[in-house]
Write a structure and sequence with these properties.
With about 290 residues, the chain is mainly alpha-helical. It is about 50% helix and about 5% strand. It is built from twelve helices and three strands. Strand 1 and strand 2 form a beta hairpin. The radius of gyration is 23 Å and the shape is elongated. The relative contact order is 0.09.
Length: about 290
């Protein structure tokens, strides 16, 4: 019933199709889990009562210890699904709120690109290629792949002599983004010989049909450069870290990334600030007569 509700939200434009796709996959994963409790051992969740005992949820958490990113996504999905069920009186309570949320030390998520990764990719895909423009767009806008599919000359605006990109990110809750088109991106855009409604085009000169289609093409471009285990979201992370290293505040990063909550951007500045404060604190000891 929750997935049906989410489908209606997508149709109404209130939720992302990518969220629906992810949660459908997570539902298959959850329903296929097998109970470790004495009376139901070995039975799949799909055939058991909706009220899951706390002991089983703790066992479920333990089974996901090696997959922190997936564990967080599962917990978020199931907590939301059960909240939906409680409101509609399908169940009396939310079992996923009866135990502590999983806490893992691993940061999980996409692996940030290194400077060597960026150089290797550009060596394989020189200026003028669509692959080069794709990397440059991700790097100098820090946009998500869903936005990269739709960004184009129609999003360019002029502010005096400065060209800017202005768009509303597709992710629900994101703030509008308005940033200058920096020279590397401007050169990459103007180097294209085929012009379309979007910057990024397929081999046939058409916009990519979906973020998934662009994701598959970008994965091939990475493979061609000998890069594995990397994604476009990792470039977004790399851009955030590089901005922080060059003195950007979390609020400045927030404006580029379209975050509506400053805490989301704080992850990029925390490490840099700690290193800077550590250097300042250690310098206090330099003049000690030891």
């Amino acid at each position: 019933t929750y997935l049906s509700h989410l489908e209606r939200l997508v149709t109404a434009g209130e939720a992302s199709p990518l969220t629906l796709k992810e949660r459908r996959n997570l539902a298959v994963f959850v329903l296929g889990q097998k109970s470790e409790q004495p009376r139901t051992r070995g039975k799949e969740y799909r055939g058991l009562p909706a009220t899951i005992p706390a002991a089983e949820l703790l066992a479920f958490q333990d089974r996901m210890l090696g997959k922190p990113g997936k564990a967080r996504n599962v917990w978020m999905f199931m907590t939301t699904a059960y909240d939906h069920a409680v409101k509609r009186r399908h169940v009396a309570s939310n079992p996923f709120k009866a135990v502590a949320r999983p806490k893992y030390t691993s940061a999980g998520g996409a692996k940030p690109w290194t400077l060597d990764d960026l150089a290797k990719y550009r060596e394989a895909h020189p200026a003028g290629t669509m692959a080069h423009l794709c990397l440059t767009l991700f790097m100098f806008t820090a946009c998500r792949i869903g936005d990269a599919c739709i960004l184009g000359r129609g999003h360019e605006v002029r502010s005096g002599s400065t060209a800017r990109l202005s768009w509303q990110p597709g992710k629900k809750g994101s703030a509008p983004v308005d940033i200058p088109i920096l020279p590397p991106l401007d050169r990459a855009i103007r180097s294209q010989t085929v012009i379309g409604p979007t910057y990024l085009l397929t081999q046939h000169g058409k916009p990519f049909a979906s973020p998934e289609a662009l994701r598959n093409r970008f994965r091939k471009w990475c493979d061609d450069a000998g890069l594995s285990g990397l994604s476009s979201h990792g470039i977004r992370k790399a851009a955030g870290h590089l901005m922080a290293l060059n003195g950007a505040t979390q609020y400045e990063i927030m404006a580029v990334h379209g975050h509506s909550n400053a805490e989301t951007s704080q992850v990029y500045t925390d490490g840099v600030e700690r290193a800077r404060l550590g250097s300042m604190a250690a310098s206090k000891l330099a003049a000690m007569d030891w």
